[in-house]
Specification:
Layout: E1 2-7, H1 26-48, E2 53-58, E3 75-78, E4 98-102, E5 123-128, E6 131-132, H2 135-145, E7 150-156, H3 157-166, E8 171-180, E9 183-186, H4 189-203, E10 218-224, H5 227-233, E11 240-243, E12 246-251, H6 254-271
């Protein structure tokens, strides 16, 4: 049994504001250990439950945040950027039996600690087939195309509510409770590690490849905080203006959909000016 852990940082224990997740800041250095603790706890729980292999895919910012030397020796880590499927890289090879979303968060425009979708700002909303989309929702659809169930989600309490919509059977662990986008009531790392490990062990029974999801089309719409960003996004083939500060595109698969999304966000981030956005 092989488990993939997609590890993001905004939903990690103790994380509540931008400096906690921005590489190079003192707060990021401090929070890296708590992020690593969450991920290691999930890995240990899956191993407790009978998993033979755990692969951690770094999914935050530079994708070089976790402390490899603090992970259990049985764990392997995929780190670094420029991966075909970004946050769920590794799921496409036909050997993953389940995926866990550790340190996840709610989507752009929603309530939640450090809520966003791919870009920290600039994107004010994302919708998939008319439903407001978090990174968890987008990645869950990618996983479903490869027959891989989402079995564990950790983050703030609203992330757990969001996950109920795309992975109702998955175990959920809230490591903090939302107060505002930059404030939360946080549990200690000792407590969250114990909670995550127990949930991961219980989630192992949900692992097992499913029939790949087929037959759907996926329309993704993005809203930006400035008109010129929408115009910039239309450089990507198939992406067209759909409203004020909005663009949309349709893909036959979520594999194609997430790769187009990645292209759009890359173009848009390059079009953001330092002072005016």
């Amino acid at each position: 049994m092989k488990i993939l852990i997609s590890a993001d940082m905004e939903g990690a224990t103790g994380v509540t504001w931008p400096a906690d997740v921005l590489p190079g800041t003192p707060q990021w250095e401090r929070c890296r250990s708590m992020f690593t603790s969450d991920v290691n706890a999930a890995a240990l729980g899956f191993l407790d439950g009978g998993a033979d292999e755990v692969l951690v895919n770094e999914a935050h910012w530079s994708m070089r945040n976790l402390l490899l030397e603090h992970l259990d020796e049985r764990v392997q880590m995929l780190t670094g950027k420029h991966k075909s499927l970004s946050m769920v890289e590794g799921i496409q090879h036909g050997d993953v039996d389940a995926v866990a979303f550790v340190g996840y968060h709610t989507g752009a425009g929603a309530e939640g600690v450090l809520a966003h979708t791919y870009l920290a700002n600039s994107i004010t909303g994302v919708w998939l087939n008319g439903v407001r989309a978090s990174e968890g929702l987008l990645n869950a659809h990618v996983a479903a195309e490869y027959g891989v169930p989402v079995v564990l989600v950790t983050g703030d309490d609203l992330t757990c509510v969001d996950a109920q919509g795309y992975a109702p059977d998955a175990r959920k662990v809230a490591v903090k409770d939302y107060v505002s986008r930059y404030a939360a009531v946080c549990r200690t790392p000792a407590r969250t590690a114990a909670d995550i490990r127990a949930a991961a062990r219980a989630a192992t029974v949900l692992a097992g490849r499913r029939d790949p999801a087929t037959g759907g089309t996926f329309t993704v719409e993005l809203e930006f905080d400035a008109e010129h960003l929408a115009a910039a996004a239309t450089v990507v083939p198939g992406v067209a203006v759909s409203g004020e500060r909005r663009v949309a595109y349709t893909s036959a698969t979520m594999y194609a959909g997430i790769r187009t999304f990645k292209a759009v966000t890359t173009i848009v981030s390059a079009a953001v000016e330092e002072q005016y956005g």
